[in-house]
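Example record

The entry below shows one chain as it appears in the dataset: sequence first, then structure tokens.
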Amino acid sequence: MDTDDLEPSVKKPAVKNLEEMSIEALQDYIAEMEGEISRVREAIAAKKEALSGAEGVFKT
């Protein structure tokens, strides 16, 4: 079995046309993206912590 089969397929979100967006809409979009970046960073930190804990268990 290939490990790629276990990974969910991830589709890229549609690219927004920034030319059509107002300045306010662009600022809102930036805030939304910064929130998503923060969420991803938290997920990475949690996974690193879990990995570190697991490595500690197996280094006996």
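Notes for this example: The two ends are 30 Å apart (CA to CA). Residues 19-60 form one domain.
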